[in-house]
Amino acid sequence: MTVRGWIWRILAALILLFLLYQAWIAVRIWWWVDHNPSISAVMSDRLGEMQDKNPKAGLRHQWVPYNRISNHLKRALIASEDAKFVDHEGFDWEGIQQAYEKNLKKGKIVAGGSTISQQLAKNLFLSTRRTPWRKAEEALITVMLEAMMDKRRIFEIYLNVIEWGNGVFGAEAASRHYFGVSAAQLTAEQAAKLAAMVPNPRYYDNHRSAKGLMRKTAIILARMGYAEVP
Predict the structure, then answer these.
(1) 15-65 pLDDT, tens per residue?
(2) What architecture (CATH level 2) is domain 38-226?
(3) By the 8 A CB rule, do 64 and 158 touch?
């Protein structure tokens, strides 16, 4: 067989592997329409990091259904992370453009622009390691999530799997870790503070009175009344 023939065979094998991987992701998303994920890729990564230092370390995580999570927290997260969540189809193009312009002006990454759907795609399937194809894979997974799940289900899973501190995942564990109450009992102020922690949860776990956190909490609290939840 010629060199060209081998190249085509290798390319065909890579394409087949790529398609099989996407099919595996699609099947898992389809399963999670009616079943709850037990662990996410980010949880798995963090657990590995923790157990490298302490083999007995474990995550704090407890799944709770959508109706047992405070509406204050739902409004706070939408106000903070994705104001157009109920209207877009996975991507907030205006938000992405604004984030790009802000990063360009500052000369470094200071804004993300990722929607709740995109964040969920990363949390469920992508490791914390940055790779050249990470954004493309995130976009494909986001499209699949939006195609197979309604907004309420996407948001329910998001509320239960996002990172909220050192080994702390999901609204219930975060509520008990920071305030000693269930996710259903959160006040508006507590919910706003939890939402403010999301961009850098492990830092804020150790710096709970940081001025930046207090400032962002107040901004979110003022915006919560305008947030539309699914």
Answers:
(1) 889 899 999 999 999 999 999 999 999 999 999 999 999 998 899 999 999
(2) Orthogonal Bundle (1.10)
(3) no
